[in-house]
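ok so i was messing around last nite and threw this chain in just to see what happens. nothing serious, just curious
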Amino acid sequence: MTEQNFPIRPLTLNDRELAMRFFDNLGPASLQFFNINDIHRNSLIDWFEGRRPDKRNFVAVGINDQGEEEIAGYVFLWDVNYKTPWMGICVSDKWQGHGLGKKLTAYVEDYCRKLGKGGIFLTTDKENIAGQKVYTHCGYKQIGYLEDELLYFRFFEDEYPPEDGTV
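result:
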């Protein structure tokens, strides 16, 4: 596998086949930590079909051994109309270890800052130690639990607390 810089871009409606292949190729740990019961695949299908206007999707693109584009990492935001959206992130098993988690997180944070957001929420499985390290490194703080997952929040100090009192 050659060294790549993995450009990040918004997911488009034309990327449906690429996105479904991304989910098809997730390994057991990624399925457990990110797509248990196909929750995020189904949410993305809803977005492709116009039922999730509150969602934004971004992908890091890699080139596979056949010279074809594939999704190396995927990050989304839910509730983008709120001051503090929710983030979900997954790096393909094949492309882990290239710093993509940090790169995708930084990309989404920059996107949210440009929109004037106050921060980002995310949850992660208690056993997702690698993900927890990425989130902590990127400035996220564990603030509690949401059901059986760890709840993290990244405050944007320059935007939070918002003057209008919204969260």
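not much to say yet. The chain is about 30% helix and 30% strand.
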